[in-house]
Amino acid sequence: MAQTIALLMGAYLLGSFPTGWVVVRLLTGQDVRRVGSGRTGGTNAMRAGGLPAGLLTGLGDLLKGALAILLARALFPDRPMAEVIAGWLVVAGHNWSIWMGFRGGAGTAPNIGAALALWPPSAAVLLPMVPLAAALTGYASLTSMVLALAIPLTLAARAAFFHGSWTEVLFGLGTLGMVAWALRPNFRRLREGTEPRLRISMQPTHSMRIPQQ
Predict the structure, then answer these.
(1) Which of 70, 120, 140, 148 is at 20 to 30 A from 129, Cα to Cα?
(2) Could you state, in chain order, the average pLDDT of each consecutive group of 10 residues for the chain (213 residues)?
């Protein structure tokens, strides 16, 4: 029971750590929630603090996802479902952080980090897909969805061709739903033609808050 509680709380609290809020506050003194989309993920951190803030936030959030899987692996060796649950919780914590009034990011970086920890060779597919999807779509929200779709497909390919666990595919399907739910305001803005395009800049690019509702 103690191990189960440690896993559930540990994975969620890892995800809840507001990397973007901390990074932007340290680099600029701003509250990232008052800039751009109001999210705490890497894209909005870049809007608020420039490319260095975005990269630091993305790497920190990716690490959160990987650490949650490693925590599950340490507490419950050879229990794929424990790793799946840890992956769900770290993304849920990121998207609905207890420290941020149950708001946060869209889950992309911790989702990728958890997937890489589940199957490190997936880095060869997922990491190059980030700049490729960003370049092809031009929108951070669509890039997030491309990655969210790619993760269960990659884990399914592992299960089918490399003797992986089909249980791990559940991780990707669950996080696909969480990412899609978090991006509902973005989908609305895409339909309305008001979604900001992704811009890579060393300097902050937004000072105005984009309404989420």
Answers:
(1) 70
(2) 90 96 94 89 92 95 97 94 97 96 95 97 96 93 96 97 94 97 95 87 60 44
